[in-house]
Design a protein that fits this description.
20% of the residues lie in helices and 36% in strands. It is of the alpha+beta class and 157 residues long. It has a single domain (11-138), classed as Roll (Thiol Ester Dehydrase, Chain A). Strands 1, 2, 3, 4, 5, 6 and 7 form a seven-stranded mixed β-sheet that branches. Strand 3 (80-91) and strand 4 (94-103) form a beta hairpin. The radius of gyration is 16 Å and the shape is elongated.
Length: 157
């Protein structure tokens, strides 16, 4: 059953590229984009009301089970990058976040990370309510129960 559509804003984190993040060719080393994804995800969790540290203290871990990044243009030292989480999808115990990295109007990279909610003992858990708030904070987000969409957010309204 499809839920109500709402106009919501995307979540964006700005990062100035430090010299330590560039390689010998003068461009951001590819693995740092996953760090930028993690930084944005951490700030989004904080905005949703549960900083990652608090979630861990409550016994909920969110390990990545898949990560993907497509590099479109190089970023360089001192560039100001915007890391936007454009979509959050919660499917049962899995959470997928889609990312866009831009410099002004230039698309630098796109990607996603998939996570599973689990206990410190390795038991798979249902997402805590704060994780469901993530879908409310990003456009085009979907909350699925048993594989069927129950809430869809769209920037189109």
């Amino acid at each position: 059953m499809l839920g109500t559509m709402h106009e919501v804003q995307s979540f964006k984190l700005s990062v100035r590229v430090p010299y330590a993040h560039v390689d010998q060719m003068g461009v951001v080393y590819y693995a740092h984009y996953l760090v930028y994804f993690e930084m944005a995800r951490g700030e989004l969790l904080r905005k949703a009301g549960m900083p990652y540290g608090d979630m861990e203290k409550a016994g909920v871990l969110l390990p990545a089970v898949e990560a993907h990044c497509v590099y479109k243009k190089p970023a360089r030292f001192d560039d100001l990058l915007d890391i936007t989480i454009s979509r959050v999808e919660i499917r049962g115990t899995r959470v997928r976040l889609d990312y866009e990295v831009t410099r002004g109007e230039v698309m630098i990279a796109t990607g996603y990370t998939d996570h599973v909610c689990m206990s410190p003992e390795g038991r798979v858990l249902r997402p805590v309510p704060e994780l469901k708030k993530l879908a409310e904070l990003c456009p085009s987000s979907t909350l699925r129960v048993s594989g069927k969409p129950t809430v869809t957010k769209s920037a189109a309204g």
